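Bench notes, afternoon.
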Amino acid sequence: MRRSSFARVLQHCTAALVAGAAAACSDRPTPVEPAVRVAVRPTVGTVAVVADTANALQLVVHFTVSAADSARVLYRRGTNAEQASRALTVTDSASVPLLAVQPGTSVTARVVAFRGAATDTSAPVSATNTAAVPDVVRRVRFATTTGHASPGYLLTAVEIGDTSYAVAFDSTGTVAWYRQFAGVPGAIDAYQQPNGDVTVFLGSSASNPLAIGKFAEVRPGGTLVREWAAPSGFSTDPHELRLDAGAGSSSYVFGFDSAPMDFTARGGTADSSVVGHTIFRLDATGAATSIFVARDHFTVADWIDPEQGITDFDHPNAIDVDRDGGLIISWRNFDEVSKIDPVTGQFVWRLGGRHNQFTFVNDPLNGFGGQHFARLLANGNLLLYDNGTTHAPQETRAAEYRLDLGAHTATLVWQFRHQPTIFTPYVGSTQRLASGHTFIGYAGVGIATEVTSAGAVVWEGQLTLDGNNAQVYRLLKIAALGHYAAP
């Protein structure tokens, strides 16, 4: 190439490069400029407020969203102040029940969708609850007799005719939520599990070898999640179902069967047919593992409580799970609370009863009798409902013990003794609330009491059915139902 020609080509390429058109002197494609990033914003689509056919006190908000990671419902009952549901994870559609909507009440709801800091809010949608009032609303009452209830709901189970209900009352004593089980009598043990679902036992009571029953697990919105039952060959005991929060979809439950035992020492025969219990762990499929068989560890000589008759050998009524996975079991007929290793099936420690390993300290009643609802507190102490069947005179109280496993002492660090005295030989519950107060359910007489750490009564109420004091299994305080904190 002659110099003049080369100079012209070089001049051409230089000009092209300056102009950003490098392809003029190369076979490589022209690079594409990066696209401008556009922030994706969430959008609320359709919103509808409809009746809930399973619960006359609920309306349900159905909605769709796009490009969202979560959403919440803002709602107003009548002219009341607007409230907000808890945020829930949702990417396309969801349904949120609005609780405690009395028949005839109008509700206005709107949905807020979130994606990071970006939001979109729907227009308000209104509806009126036109459902008829069910029996449970008309016939069950929870009236305050002393003080003012703290925020939260009171949860229990009642039976009306051949229909069972799990029921929650708000702080005014009004039925705020229920789940109906039509044609299924025998509702016992309504309990809020660690996952927020409510479980309730439906069917015949314990101590009946022909009993047929199971636990139903329902969402606060009323959807049946699943049913839990002891394995084939055993009846399901109604006293306790505990979902294991640390092990996924599994649970602990009591199963019972009947076998001949020599009960002549207790007024029976040499071959009395007696119910005994086994502790089972149920996995997500319902497969059962036997953890502990009471007949292998207790004898007739351990039997203390005279109230049950000779048909029920052990009568366990509470399961709690310690932080190390150990099981805390209350045995009513033995006046014993035990810790059991779920792997070996052996006792870790035994408190009360014939095999007591502890010295009771600072306890004027020197222990407990016929107890229910044994629970370990966050501080490691044991709180229980002491029915007081062995006290003289008989008296029911709430009692908290500090257990020293090295010194083998059980020191009473707190108790509440009602004035006037209340005695319930059966049933009952006691809880330590987040506020530090203690909530005591004298379920045998339908009374619930909330007290301070100093023992001052801040609130008390009475449960009635058709105007009469109601007897239930437990009266429990819960902070929230589903996506709804207490009003």
